[in-house]
Design a protein that fits this description.
The chain has about 350 residues and is an alpha/beta fold. It has 14 helices and nine strands. The strands form two sheets. It has a seven-stranded mixed β-sheet, sandwiched between helices. Strands 1-2 form a two-stranded antiparallel sheet. The longest helix is centred in the N-terminal third of the chain and has 29 residues. The protein is globular and about 70 Å long.
Length: about 350
């Protein structure tokens, strides 16, 4: 068949944009790690030499870094003054980890899996799993920094109130299990918001649990917010008023087994809260920029981890509501509904 030049040119245009993004990603991580964004935001309009002096980074590297950031739209350039600056919007997205659109954490996740590419390629070829613990440590830290801003913006203000009666129980004093808690960002946020309740986070990754314990101490909630190494199918305790799983159910090898254990560990009137990436039930529904992020991340992180565990159901990060409903009902829950959502997240509520 002859080549359609217009279609080829369209593909090449996407390629140029994507290649620039791939090279841009590690420069964002470097700029965050070396404090270049924060220094520029504090200093205001600066030459490369001025930013180099203030940041303690070599001037020639700073010059090239600034030019690349300006070409990417992450830094603003004034050609008349030969100075660079961050607009309010750029500074908001690149320097403040507390806001819901903090960007560097996502780039840290993306660049971390590039470091694992040789071993991931072999796992894909062989059809074997690649566990969370096998990844570069930047994945663990980047995941927290990627998800925590969204949890800060939505968990207490929107998601908990959307659950039937849960907020009142948390205010009065409830027992909560956060399963697959990672570094404990969601657990600690809940403990800070509901001082009458007690919280325990469970995760199979020991280094993450150790990190979470330190974070709880630093946040001043360690007296009622503890962390233990345990799997989603074997964590201890019963009679929990709330069991939550944040962006982790689709990663599990046996999500139905996890649902069954959650059902057994809940009080008779308890709630299973499942937060998942928002996705349609059909592949065609997810062929968009957000779906692109999640499908590719799922290829490198979520599906390999699921295949590393028993059953290896490999739901994937774009499983969709219907598949999550199937998991909940197969696990013994009788009521299931979508309680809240936004472009990135879907919040599900399951009841016994």
């Amino acid at each position: 068949m002859p080549i359609d030049q217009a279609k080829l040119d369209e593909l090449l245009g996407r390629f140029v944009a994507d290649l620039g993004a791939v090279f841009h990603a590690p420069t964002v991580v470097i700029g965050d790690k070396l404090g270049l964004y924060r220094t520029l935001a504090d200093a205001g309009p600066s030459t490369a030499a001025e930013l180099a002096e203030r940041s303690g980074v070599a001037e020639r590297y700073v010059t090239e870094w600034l030019r690349g950031q300006a070409a990417s739209g992450y830094v603003t350039y004034d050609p008349e003054e030969d100075r660079y600056l961050l607009t309010e919007e750029q500074a908001f997205a690149l320097t403040d980890e507390r806001n819901p659109v903090f960007l560097p954490g996502a780039f840290q996740v993306a660049t971390s899996v590039a470091k694992d590419e040789p071993r991931l390629a072999e796992a894909l070829r062989a059809g074997t799993g690649f566990g969370w613990h096998q990844h570069h440590p930047d994945l663990f830290h980047g995941t927290e920094r990627f998800f925590r801003p969204g949890y800060s913006a939505n968990l207490v203000s929107a998601w908990i109130p959307a659950l039937d009666g849960v907020e009142a129980r948390l205010r009065a004093g409830a027992r909560v299990a956060d399963v697959g808690c990672g570094h404990g960002a969601s657990t600690i946020l809940l403990a800070q918001a509901y001082p009458a309740s007690s919280f325990v986070g469970f995760d199979g990754h020991r280094p993450s649990i150790e990190w979470a314990r330190k974070a709880a101490t630093e946040a001043g909630v360690a007296d009622r917010c503890s962390f233990e190494v345990a799997s989603a199918k074997a964590y201890p305790g019963s009679g929990y008023d709330l069991v939550a799983v944040f962006d982790a159910l689709h990663d599990m090898g046996d999500p139905v087994g996890a649902a069954e254990h959650a059902r057994r560990s809940l009080a008779d009137d308890g709630t299973w809260m499942v937060v998942e990436p928002n996705a349609g039930d059909r592949v065609a529904d997810n062929l968009n920029p957000i779906g692109r992020v999640f499908y590719n991340a799922s290829t490198l992180i979520c599906v390999p981890h699921s295949l590393s565990e028993e059953v290896g159901l490999a739901l994937g990060a774009q499983a969709g509501e219907a598949r999550i409903r199937e998991v909940a009902l197969a696990g013994g829950f009788t009521r299931f509904r979508r309680a809240a959502d936004n472009p990135f997240n879907a919040v599900y509520e399951a009841r016994p």
